[in-house]
Amino acid sequence: MENPFAEEPKATSAWLWQVFTGVGLVILLGLHFMANHFIAKGGLRDFADVVAYLRNPIVLVLELLFLVFVTTHALLGVRAVLLDFGFSESIEKRLSRALTVVGVLTIGYGLWLTWNIIR
User: Fold this and answer.
1) In the predicted model, is pLDDT for residue 118 greater than 80?
2) Are the C-beta atoms of residues 119 and 98 closer than 8 Å to each other?
3) Rounded Cα distance, 106 and 119, in Å
4) 119/117 Cα distance (integer angstroms)
5) For residues 101 and 41, what is the distance between their CA atoms, to the nearest angstrom?
6) Over pLDDT 70: what percentage of the chain?
7) What's the distance, CA 56 to chain centroid?
8) CA-to-CA distance for 58 and 73, rounded, in angstroms?
9) What is the SS3 assignment for 107?
10) Domains of the chain: which residue ranges?
11) At the top level of CATH, which class does the domain 14-118 belong to?
C-alpha cells in the first residue's frame, strides 16, 4: 500500500484562497461583532432592528461578503482535510465538484433568505 503522506503535495491555488478568505474573515468578523454586539443597544437586535440594519446598502454588502467568505473558507478547509486521505485524482475532482455545489447552494440559500428578510 502506498503512503500518500510520503509524496510531495500538489501545488494548487486553493491554499491561496484559503488564506485570502481567512484574512477577510478576521476583518469581516470584527466588523460584524462591532456592529451587532457592541454598537447595538443592549448588545442584541430584534427582528425589526435586523431588517432595518440590513436595508443599509453598505451593511448588506458586508454581511453578504461575510456569508461568501465563511462558506468558501469552510469548504476549502473540508476539501483540504479530505484530500489528505490520498484519494485518486478522479475522486478528488468529484469531491471538489460536490463541495462547489454545496457552496453554491449554501450561498444561494443565504442570498434568498436575506432577500426575503429585507423586502
Assistant:
1) yes
2) no
3) 20
4) 6
5) 39
6) 91
7) 22
8) 22
9) helix
10) 14-118
11) mainly alpha
